[in-house]
Amino acid sequence: MITQKVVRLAVWYVLLAVVIIFALAPIVWMLSTSFKPESQITTLNIEWIPRTFTMENYDAVFERFAILRWTLNSVIVSVAATLLVLLLDSLAGYALARMEFAGRNLLFSIILSMLFVPLQITVVPLFLMFSKVNLTDTYLALILPVGANVTGVFLMRQFFLNIPYELEDAARVDGASDLRIWWSVVMPLARPALTAVAIITFLSTWNSFFWPLIATRTDAARTLPVGIAQFMSLRPGQSQSAQAYGRSMAGAVLAALPPILFFFALQRYFIQGISMSGLKG
Amino acid sequence: MKKLFWRILLASMLVLPLGGLTLAQDDVVTIEFWGGWTGPDGDIMADLVNQWNEENPGIQVNLTIQQWSPLFDAFVVSASAGESPDILAMHPQEMPQFVELGLLTPLDDVIEGLEAINPDNYPASAWNANIYQGALYGIPLDLHMHGLYYNLDIFEEAGIEAPPATGEELLEIGRMLTIDENGLHPGDDGFDPDNVVQYAINMHTNHHAFFQWWSLYNQLGGQLISEDGTECVMDLDKAAEAWQFLQDLVYVHHIAPQGQTDYATDFLSGRTAMLIDGPWRMPALEAAEEESGFRWASARYPQVFDEQYAVWGSSHIFTLPALADPDKQDEALMFLEWLAANSAAWAESGQLPAFRAVMESEEFQSMYGREAFIEMMPYEVLFPNTPKYSEIFASNAPTPMMVMAQNIMLEQADPRTEVEAACEAITSILATP
Amino acid sequence: MRILPRPRTAAAEASRLRFRRQLIPYLFLLPYLTFFVLFRLGPALAGMGISFTKWSIVGAPEWVGLSNYEAMTRDPRLSAAVTNTLFFTGLTVPLLVVLGLALAMLMNQPHRGRALGRVAVFTPYVLMSTVVGVIWTWLLEKDFGLINVYLSQLGFEKVPWLVDQSTAMYGIVLTTVWWTVGYNMVLFLAGLQDIPTELYEAARIDGANAWQLFRRITLPLLAPTTFLVLMLTIINSFQVFDQVYVMTSGGPGTATLTLVQYIYTTAFQFRKMGYGAAIACLLFAILIIFALVQTRAYRRGVRGVAA
Fold first, then answer.
1. In the list B5, B184, B238, B388, which could disulfide-bond B220, CB 3.0-4.6 Å?
2. How many domains does chain C have?
C-alpha cells in the first residue's frame, strides 16, 4: 500500500517536472535575456544564466516609456471588460441553456456563427462607428466591443447545461423569481465556469493588439501590448533595422506578470466537488 | 462578496470615461509624429523629440512608434475616418501608394522659402527618390544601403589582408573562411556541408533575399518595371544570373548558410566571418567592441558583376499627411527644419544623415566604419516607385518578390523558372487597377 | 445514480403567467444582445457587405457585385491558403484537444505542486505573439537553434524547420501547441469540476479501474466541455494568424500562408478590403459547414451516451 503511494507520487513528480520544463524552458530564456546586456544576448554557446546580470533593460523600459500608465490602462480595461462579460454572458448563457423560448436554437446559432468572422474584417466598420461618436482613444472603445464576446456565452451555456434541474425546480417551488434563481442558485454552482470565462476574457483583452492599435492614439488610453510594441524587435532576418532584444524581453516579462498573477489567484477555484456540495446544501 | 462585486463593477464603470479626457492647453500646439523605429534608433529619435519639446514649450511633438506595417495599418484606418498624424515617416518606395489614395500632401509649394529643407541641402539621389509623378512628397532624413562587415580577428588569423571587393574574391576568401567540424574547407576531400562550424558570410537569404538580388541585378544593369509603370520588363537572363550567383553561395560553394534568420547574431558571436547588412548594424558592433573587444571593419558591397557598380539602398523620409490639421503645418515644418539641422545625433543610429551640412561635417565623416557607406552613396539603387509597392515587394506577405526569393534561396528552385513566374505575376499586379 | 437533464416540469402554469414567462428569456438575453448586435453582428454584416465592393479602406467603396468572388476562383494563393489552413487545423486540433485534456486531468490531481504546474502550462498563453515569434524563430533556427543543437547532440539529424517548405508548418504547429494548450487546459479544468466526486467514489467501490472511470464517467460527463473545446480549437485553428505573421509571414514561398494571414495581407497590406472580405466570407462558409457536421456528430454522440 505504502509503496504504491510512493510510486504514484514519484510518477506525479516526474510528469510534473517534464511538463514544467517543456512549458517554461523558452520562458526561462526570455527571462534570462531580459537581464543580459545587449552585447551578451548573441553568444556562441547557449547561456541560460546571464554572465553579467544587469537591470539596464528594465531601467530603460521604465525611464523611456509610460509603461506604468499602459499597465494601469490595461488593468482597468481588462478588469472592466471581464466583469462586463461575466455579467452579460452568464445571463445570456443561462437563458440559452435553461429556458425554452421561440427561436432559441436559431439565436444561439447566429451568436455562435459570429465566431467564424475574422476580426480583420470587422475592425474597420467598428472603428468608423467609434469615430462617429467620438469615442476613439478612450477606455470605452476598448471595453465595449469585448461585451460582444461570443466564447463566453458559448462557455456559460455549455456549463449551465450540466447543472441538475432539481435545484432550480426546488427553488421555483419556493416561489423564487428567475433572476433570484440565476443569482443565488445557479451562479454559485457555476464558479468553475465563471472562473474559466474570467481567465479567458481577461487574457484575450489583455493581449489584444490589433483593435487597441487602431483605436488608441495616446498614452492616455494605450494598452500594454500596443505600448510595448513601440520597442519590440523582430528577428533581424525579418526586419531591415537594428534590434534591442534585452529590452523587448524585459517588456514582455513585465506584460506577462499581471496575467500570470491573475491566473494564479483564480486557478484555486478549480477544485473538484463543488457541484455536489452545492446539491447537498 | 456580492457587495464587493457590485462595488468593483460600479467603481470601474465610473473610471471609464477618464481615458477620453485630453489635457490640452489652449496655447500649445501638439504635433502628432508617427515613425517605425522600434529598435535602438527609436531612442535616438525620442531623445531628439524630447530636446525639441524642452526648447519649444509652445510646440509639443508627440512621437508614436510602431513597426512599419501596423503603423501604416493604423494610418490608413484612421484616414478612413478623416484623421491623420501631422508627420508620418516612411521609406520613399512606400510613398506612391499613399499618394494614390490621396493621403499625402505635395510639398513643392509647402517648402518654398524654407531654410534647411531645400534641394540644395540634400544629395540629388536622396531628394529625387521622393518625387512621384512630378511632385515632391517626402523630405529625406537619412540614407542607408547594404555594405560588407568583416571580423578582423578571423581575417588576421587566416592571413587575409583585405575584404573581398569582387565576386571572385568573395568565393576565394569564402572558401578559406568556411570550416566544417573536421577543420576542412569547401572543395577539400571529405568536406561535410551539413556540419559547418564557421561560415564565411551571412546575409539576408530569407525574407529579404531579394534585396541582395536587387544589388546584383542592378550591377548587371537590369530594369524591373517599365517607365509607364504598367508591366514587368525584367531581363530574365540577367535576373536569373544574379540569382544563380546567390544560390550558388549556399548550395554549390557552401560558404553561406541556408536561410539563416539570425545572421547578425552569428556575425557578432564569430560564427560567420563576414556579414552583409545596413549601416543600422554599426551601433551594435560598436557596443560589442566596447564590451567584449569584438574587432570589426566595414567595406563596400562587393562588385560581383562588371557592368556597373550598384547596391540596394533606401532612406527614411518625412511626409505630411493630407488629412492632418492644416493649421499645424507650419509648426510641423518648423520641427522638421530643426530636425534636419540637428540630425547629427541621428547618425549615432548608424544611418547616414541626408542633410548635407551634417553629412559633410568632420564629426560625421570621421566616425568609424562610415567611410565605406559614404563612398557607396552615389551608387545606391532604390526599389522602383510604384503604387503597387506592397503587392510586389512586401517582405512580410506572399508577394512575387518574396516567393521568388524564398523558392530560389531556400528550396533551390531553378532561378530561370522563378524569375519568369515572378515577372508574370508582377505584370498582372500592375495591370489590375 | 446518474444525473441527466430532463425537460422542465412546469406544465401546470397559469396562462396569466405564460406571457411573462415567455418574456423572461429575452430579458436575460437583452443586455448581451445589445452589445452583440452593435459590436459584433453589425460590423460583421458590414464586412460581408464590403465583400461586394472594391474598397481601399480610404474613400467610398465602389460596388462591384460578385467580381471579388469570381476573382477567388482563379487565385492560386487562395487555394494554397485553404490547403495550408486545413493541414494546420488537421494537425493542431487533435494535439491541442488531447493534450489539453491530459494536462487538465494531470493538473486536477490532488497532489502538491499542481498550482505550479497549472501556472507553468498556462504561462506561454500569457505571452504576446511578437514575443512568441521572437522566442520560437530563435529556438527553431536551422544551424544554431536550441532545438536543433539538442537534437544533434542526441544523434538526430537537424530539421530545417522554418526554412524548408516541407517542414515549416510543423514548426508553426509546434509553436502553436506550446503557446495555446494552456487555454484548453483551463476549459477542461473547469469542466472537470462539474463532475460530482461521488460518482467516482461509487464506481470505485464497484471495483472500476482508472481507465473505466475515465471511459465511463469522465468522458461522457465531460461531453459538453469537449464539444466546446473542440469547436473553439477548430475555429481558432482555422483563424491562425499571429504566429504565422510573426514567424514566417506565410513563407517559405506560400508554404505557411493561411487564410486569415491572407485576409490580413489582402485587406490591409494590399488595401483590397473588398477582396479580403470575400475571402473572409469563404472562411465563414467553410466554418459553418464544419460546425454543422460537428453539432450533428455531437448530438448523435450524446444520444448514444444517454441511451
1. B238
2. 1
Q: What is the pLDDT of residues B174-224, one digit of tens each?
A: 999 999 999 999 999 999 998 899 999 998 888 889 999 999 999 999 999
Same domain assignment for residues B168 and B68: no
* Chain B residues 349-368 with a CB less than 8 Å from chain A: 349-350
Q: What is the pLDDT of residues B64-78, one digit of tens each?
A: 999 999 999 999 999
A272 and A161, same structural domain? yes
In a domain, C206, yes or no: yes
Q: Does C255 touch chain A (CB under 8 A)?
A: no
With respect to residue B8, please indicate whether it lies within any of the assigned structural domains. no
Task: Tell me if ipTM is over 0.85.
Answer: yes
B398 with C77: Cβ contact below 8 A: yes
Q: Which domain holds residue B405?
A: 145-312+383-431
Residue C205: domain span:
75-306
Q: How close A120 comes to chain B (CA, Å)?
A: 11
| CB within 8 Å: B12 and A230 | no
Q: In this structure, is residue A61 part of a structural domain?
A: no
Judgement on whether residues A45 and A78 belong to the same structural domain of the protein = no
* Cβ within 8 Å, pair B101-C58: yes
Cβ contact (<8 Å) for A159 and C194? yes
Mind spelling out the 3-state secondary structure of chain A? CHHHHHHHHHHHHHHHHHHHHHHHHHHHHHHHHHCCCHHHCCCCCCCCCCCCCCCHHHHHHHHHCCHHHHHHHHHHHHHHHHHHHHHHHHHHHHHHHHCCCCCHHHHHHHHHHHHHCCHHHHHHHHHHHHHHCCCCCCHHHHHHHHHHCHHHHHHHHHHHHCCCHHHHHHHHHCCCCHHHHHHHHHHHHCHHHHHHHHHHHHHHHHHCCHHHHHHCCCCCCCCHHHHHHHHCCCCHHHCCCCCCHHHHHHHHHHHHHHHHHHHHHHHHHCCCCHHHHHHHC
Is the pLDDT at C307 greater than 80? The verdict is: no
Residue C129: which CATH number? 1.10.3720.10
Q: State CA C109 to chain mean position distance.
A: 26
Beta-carbon separation of B391 and C164 below 8 A: no
Q: Are residues A135 and A37 in the same domain?
A: no
- B108 touches A at CB < 8 Å: no
Question: A residues 123-152 near C, CB within 8 Å?
Answer: 123-126, 129, 144-145, 147-148, 150-151
Tally of CB atoms within 10 A around C255: 25
